Structure formats: structure tokens, C-alpha cells
Amino acid sequence: METSIWRALLYLVGIMAFAGLNAAYLGWCERKGAARIQRRVGPTEAGWAGLAQPLADGLKLMSKQLLVPDGVDSIIFRVAPVLAMIPAITSMVVIPFSGGIEARGMELSVLLLFALASLSMIAILLGGWASGNKYAIISSARAVSQNLAYEIPMLLTVITIVMISGSMNLREIALDQQGGFWHWNIFRLENGHFVIMWISFIIFFICSIAETNRAPFDMTEAESELVAGYMTEYGSMGFGLFMMGEYLNMVVGACLTTVLFLGGWDCPFGKTPGVWWFLIKIYILLFTVIWIRWTYPRTQIYRLLNLSWKILIPFSLAILIITAALIKVF
Amino acid sequence: MDILEETRVRLAELFSETSTVETPVADETGQEEVAPRKPGVMVLDSARTGAHLDVLCSPDQVVDVAQIMDGNGFFLEAISGVDWIDKQQLEVIYDYTRQDEQNCRVMTRTFISRTEPALPTLTGVFPAADWHERETFDFYGVHFQNHPNLIRILLPEDADFHPLLKDFMP
Amino acid sequence: MTVPVNLRHDETFVLNLGPQHPATHGVLRVKLTMDGEYIVKAEPVLGYVHRMHEKMAEAGTFAQFMPNTARMDYLHALAFNHGWALVVEKAAGIEVPERAEYIRVITVELNRIASHLLWWAAFLLDLGGFTPLLYAFDDREKIIDLLERVTGSRLTYCYMRFGGVCNDIDDEFISGTRAFIKRLRSRMPRLYHDLVTHNIILIKRIKDIGIVSKEQCRRYGATGPVCRGSGINYDIRKNEPYSVYPEFDFDVPVFDECDSMARYMVRMHEMEQSLRIIEQALDKLPDGPVMGKAPKMLKPEAGYYYSAVETARGSFGHRLVCDGGKNPYKVKLRSPTFSNLSLFGEVAEGMLLADALAFMGSLDLVIPEIDR
């Protein structure tokens, strides 16, 4: 691909638009989905079927006063929400939306994505600590231990995929899975991987829900215990940025799951690959995440950590070893 | 021996006079708030009054009564105060009842002075008394000796009045 | 979590579960001294909704206190109405006609189901499950509509009078109640038990949490589902029967595990038993007047009277002292949640914050009832 200033500008605008629309309208999807599950309708007043609701919410949040309480660390308090958004948007640079749509391919794009994910965890930690509020500090401590615990099985699973595909470039991993759903990593019919790959998929999916602090793993913002957790002291756009960051992290997680396990932009029958398949897959995953949120209550912090350290990590280690053995044998 | 009889006998041992069974006065005129009687145990008509036994004791016998109740498996249901301003006395009523199928409610009453009301605490016997006594202190000013934490419970901590006294003017 | 913890008493900080908090079901403040996530000491601070009902009772006549009774526990207001009516009828010797007694029982049991539905919804909201709130409120709306037909209010009912009830029930109420019984019975297994009670996350969250032993229940005077979840079979409707409860065939659910799961199951089974009582009452409903003879200005005989009713939260007692005048001389309102909450301080020691909140939810607190 030739580098040209127009291409860079086009991708910049495209990614910002994609990120902005998703952050706003994923909130609308969530509210409508939650409403239907709860046998009510959700937003209907603003615009047709409530579609202007996110705009109205955004306007409201922007017009509120950004209240900075007295006892906070002034620079970090203001920087933390921005820091929460940056990794999510930046991650979209390396995600291959289809064969031809990729902002900047890199040989080590998987590594970049995980480095950026850790950065968003730091944003939560800083936001909670800078607030100077005991509830926020407890919530940040919980967030750090939770994110740390769930990054490990995630990484182990990704190493398994990298071993199978032989590359850390997301585009190559996706290309490796082209040609119909039997080539996708989740079903991987050759070399006997299909026996365990679906377990890998489930582990990765659970970890991605836990990494983005979504229910049932949302103890960091457990309303009934910690009021709003690390976001307690934030109002207006600070809160808005944290929420948008959370939705964007969900989107990046869904994109990553799609590329790693579900074949990226591949059609299930290998006929017409393209970006629309990619989008369909990520929205099905996002709908499942929303569905899970409104169905289950929250777990406790020690059970959450037990799930990761005592169950997911041994399983993903075992899968790694089995995969390595299978690759060696076949 | 059923629990009512057993409790009555054990309680009656606390009192020196043989004032065990006294039928309640049938016709009380509206003026008499309290039928004058000696300290002791009285059997009541439970369908009419809701309680089976009425124990009238002196302020320092309250803990002994509570220990007998605890030993017989009762629980402390409520502690109420009544302000008899005409007689310049405060009455404190302790209600004990049972949690099993034997229905028996015992009402223990004691009279203390209105100007310096004081009673020993029951928290050593029933932890439930902790909050009930704080409430009685809050509303009537009754001081419970040796209470672990006798501060106001429902009114603000810095209030300086006791609202349920009859001469309280807001 | 039953693993014993070494609490460090010198490295603690004080966390205020303040009066304004999403989980405390009203304005309750709990001063928690915490070591990390473990609670070292918990002291509930009450009195934020204190309105001094006992003084209001002394200041007005017996009938003027009836609306106050609904404002104490607004979730089971009819039972509190019933308790006040019972104690004054006991004192003044007023007879209640049979039809009125049956209507009282039907409405009180409907209200009990509504109260337990709201408890279930709020409990799950505390634990993070947002959806059951709306399923429960759907059923609760049906009950409230039924009760609004006869009483005129949706929440704070002032329906009972000394000698009966103030309005008769009509055929639409009866058919509506029967339809509701069928509807709730069909929804319970699917929506309430399959979705929530058998959910592994919920089970792990409340099983073995908040153990209250039998002896603790007795020493603190806990009644209602709290003591029935600890194996004590104490229900005023069976132990000290009042009104026409002896005529109905119903069970009192008692569970021995003493944990939050037991209290949860007690309340779920109580809803089913209330449905049974309502069915039998509707079948046996006699004709007749709904209001007995009661003097306009009540002046009961002087004396000491006690009466207790079984509300959704426990045994609510009135200690009434009359002096022969037209105002009560003294009314002591023995609130069940006051005694239930007093054991929070002892049981919450050494618990994690999340577990303590699950325990508090299982106690079913309504703060205006504690504060009166």
C-alpha cells in the first residue's frame, strides 16, 4: 500500500467515525436490548425509536459543569478519562476490518493490542486514586486485581492461536482462516485442533468480558456497594469519556475475538468475504455480551479471582501444551 | 408442668410475700390508672390483655427476672416506658415471650422516680436490650447503669430533651 | 466465606455506608471500620427517618392514629393497620363480623405477597441482577391495582377501622384476585425459580453467607423470616392465632441452614402459602356486614394490652396503655426490623463488604419501620 497523506486522513476520519458512532450507538443498543429483556420498551421519545437519544445524552453531558472536587490530584484527575479512551481508539489502527481495509498493518499487532489494553487498566487505577474517595480507591484496587488476573488466560489463549497461525500479525491470522467456517480457529478441523479450540474460544470470551469490566464481572462499578466505583467523583464529560471508553473496549474486544477465532471478514461458506461479515460477527458478539449483562447477578471478588487463577489459567495452560503437542505431531 | 406454671413459680420465688395468685380487679373505674398492689406475680386473662403473667418488681430485681426468663428460654420482645406524671413516676415495662409452640407472654413492670430515673442494664443477659434501652433512654431519659454504649439512638446525638415525657413542649 | 480471617485491628479505616446509598433500602447509615475489604466493626446509626409516631399516638384519638400505622412499614401497611385495629378492639371489646375478618385476611395476604416481591426485586438489584426487578414489579402492579379498587390507595393503606373494614369487596375484585393467583402460580417456576433461584451465581453469592444461629436469634429477639431461616418455627399466625387464621390450612416454611439462602427460600415459600390462604379465604367468604358496632368516641377500659401480628418482616407488637380517656396514654410500637437489625453488628464482623451487603439485603430492612 502506498503511503499517502490522503489515505492517512481517510483512515483517521474513518476510525474516529467508527469509534464515535459505536460508542454512542452501542449505548442505545444496550438500552433497547435491556428494555426488551425486561419487558419494557426503552428510549422512544428522542427521534424515531429513540435513535437521537445518544445525541441528547452527549449534549447533556457536554453542557454540564465539569466539577473538580477539592481534594483531588488536579492533573491526573483530568487526564484519567482521556487516558481511558486513547487505547481503545488507537487499537483500531491495527485491526483488519477486511482484506483491503486496515489502517496500518504491523508484524506484532497482537502485542500492540495487549499493551494498549494494559494502558486502559492504568487509566482506571489513576481515575480511582486521583479521586481521593475511599469508595473509588477500593474500586480501583478491585479493578487492578481483576484485570491482572484475566489478562493471563487471555494471553495464553492468544499464544495458542499464534502458534497455530505462525504469525503475530492480525491480518495474517485472519487470512489463515479464510475459506469457510471449517477453517475458522474456533472449529479448526485440521490437525485435530477442533477438539479443544472451542474451549479456547469460551475462555477468551469470558476474559474479554472480565477485561472490560462488564457484568457479571463488574465489581469495579458495583452500584449497590461502591456507588459508582472509580467514576463516583466524575461528572459530565469525565464520566462520559469513561463510559465511551468502556463501550469502545467492548468493541475492540469483539473485533479481536472475531479476528482470532471467527475468521475475520470471512463468510461462513467461503463465498463472498467482505467487511459486512466482520461487522455482523462483531455485533452478534456484542449483543451476546449485552444479553449476559442483563441476565446474571454479580459474582463476588474472591470468586471472580478464583475463577481466573484456579480454573481459567490451568485450562489455558493445558490447551497450550496440547496444541503444541498436536502441532509437533502432525 | 407447663411453661406458664413453671415460670410463675420461679418468678414467685423472687418475692418474699406469698402474693402468688391475685385475680385482677373486675371493675376498674376510669380514674385509676394503676390498681395498687404489692410486688409479685399475677396471672392475667391472655385473651383480654394479651399477656399471661404480670410481674411487678422493684428496680433492682429486674436483672434477676431477666435471668430467670433467659433460663426458661424466653426472649426479650420490647422495653417500653410509661410516664405517669400524676404520680411523678416512670414505669418501665419489659415484655418477654417465647419462640416455640408454647404461647406465654410475661409482662414485667417496675416503677422508678421521674426526676432521677435509673435502672440496671439487661445487656449482660439479652443483647437485644442494648438498642431497646438506648431507645428508652432517648425517649424518657432513663439511665441504664453499666450499659456499654448509652447514647441516643433515634434522635440526633446532641438533642437535650426527652420527647415522650408528658411535660415535654416542642 | 467461612475461612477465618486475621483482622488487623490497628490498620483500619472507617468507611461510611452513608445515609444516601443505593443499597441501604432507605436512609440507614452504617459506620464500617474496615481492614481492606473485611469488616472489623459495623455500627448501624439510625434515626434519619424518625418521626415520633408514639408521641403522635398520644396526641390524637385512637382513630386518628390509623393513617400513621401505614406510614411505618409502607410495604406491608395493611398488616400494621390490622395490628392497631386488633389491639384497640381487644381493649375496647369490639366484635368484628366474619366477612370483615375474611376480607382483612385476604387483603393482608395480598399485601404480604407484594412486600415479598419487592424484597426479592431489591435484593437481586443489590446483587447486580437488574432484570428481576421488572418481572417482580409486573406482578406487584397487578396486586396494587386490585387493592386500589377496594382501598383507594396504592401503597399506604388506611383501610381497616375498629370493628371491620371501611369498604366491601365486589365481584370484580374476587375474580381479579383469582386470576392473579393463577397468573403468579404459572410465572413462579419459570421466571422466579428457574431464572434466579437456581442460578449458580446467586447460589454462590448467598449460600453460607450471614450465618445467624438459633441462639443469636433468640438473644436478639429476631422474628419473621430471619428466625424461620434459622430453624425456629415461630409465626404469630400459628403460635398466637388471631383473626380467622385458625380456619385456614397453610404451612409455615422453616429452613435450618441459618444462611441467607435459607431466608431467601423462606420468603419464596411464604408467597406460595399466602396464595393458598387467599384461595381458601375466597372460597369460604361469608356474606354479611363489613363493619361491626363501635362507638364513635372510643374510651377503652384502663389497663395494659398487648397484641402482635405477623407482618412480612416479623412480629409487630403494640403495647397499649390506656387510662380510660379518648387518647391512648402510651403506645409502644415493637418493630420487627429494629430487632432484626440489632444483630447486624455481631454477625457482620469479619465479613467481606460484598457479603455484608448481601446479608443486609436478606434481612429485608425497611428503615421507616425501624425509625418510626
Summary, kept brief:
The complex is a heterotrimer of chains A (330), B (170) and C (372). With 170 residues, chain B is an alpha/beta fold.
Can you describe what's shown?
The complex is a heterotrimer of chains A (330), B (170) and C (372). Chain A has eleven helices and no strands. By secondary structure, chain A is an all-alpha fold. In chain A, helix 1 crosses helix 9. The mean pLDDT of chain A is 82. In chain B, 21% of the residues lie in helices and 26% in strands. Chain B has four helices and seven strands, in the order H-E-H-E-H-E-E-E-E-H-E. The longest helix of chain B has 12 residues. Chain B starts with a helix and ends in a 25-residue tail after the last strand. In chain B, 41% of the residues are buried. Chain C is α+β, with helices and mostly antiparallel strands and 372 residues long. In chain C, 49% of the residues lie in helices and 13% in strands. In chain C, the strands form three sheets. Chain C has a three-stranded antiparallel sheet. Chain C has a three-stranded antiparallel sheet with strand order 6-7-8. In chain C, strand 6 and strand 7 form a beta hairpin. At the A-C interface, helix 5, helix 8 and helix 11 of A face helix 4, helix 5, helix 7 and helix 14 of C.
Q: How is the secondary structure organized here?
A:
The complex is a heterotrimer of chains A (330), B (170) and C (372).
Chain A: H1 5-37, H2 53-63, H3 74-91, H4 109-131, H5 134-165, H6 170-176, H7 194-211, H8 223-226, H9 236-261, H10 275-295, H11 301-329
Chain B: H1 3-12, E1 40-43, H2 46-49, E2 53-57, H3 62-71, E3 74-84, E4 89-98, E5 106-113, E6 118-120, H4 129-140, E7 143-145
Parallel strand pairs in B: 2-5, 6-7
Antiparallel strand pairs in B: 1-2, 3-4, 4-5
Chain C: E1 13-17, E2 29-35, E3 38-45, H1 53-59, H2 66-72, H3 77-92, H4 98-127, H5 131-151, E4 160-161, E5 164-165, H6 171-197, H7 200-206, H8 214-220, H9 225-228, H10 236-239, H11 260-284, E6 303-311, E7 314-322, E8 330-334, H12 336-342, H13 344-347, H14 353-363, H15 367-371
Antiparallel strand pairs in C: 1-2, 2-3, 4-5, 6-7, 7-8
